[in-house]
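Take a look at this chain, tokens included, and explain the fold to me:
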Amino acid sequence: MSPLVITLLLLLGFACIILAFIGAIFPGIPGLPVALIAFAILHFSGLFVFHGWMLTLLMAFVLLVVVMSVLDYLLPSMMAKWFGGSKYASWGSNIALILCVFISTPLGPFAIVVGPFLGAYIEELVPIATLTILQDKRE
């Protein structure tokens, strides 16, 4: 590989590492997958070759990234059901989680915690309000 390609891969890898650190603070950037991409780029540059215990550590990191990414999106709805919420609460927490990831709010990073809770709470109130409106129309 030419020195220019190696230099560009190193710069791209280090940029991904910095982006992964930013992703640890801001919820819109997936930090763990970006860090994994950075390790892959650095490995393929040829200067940082993972072998032996480092390769085992990298494979453990890949497994951790997959598990954490899946749990990051499934856990809010699972917890809503675990604590007695209905399917509406589960949907509300998932929708609010996705909105909080992509929409900037005044709460900043705390929106990722507060958003699914409020989404589940609001979606729990929707069937009650709908049922009340339907009962009022019957009378």
Observations:
- The mean pLDDT is 78.
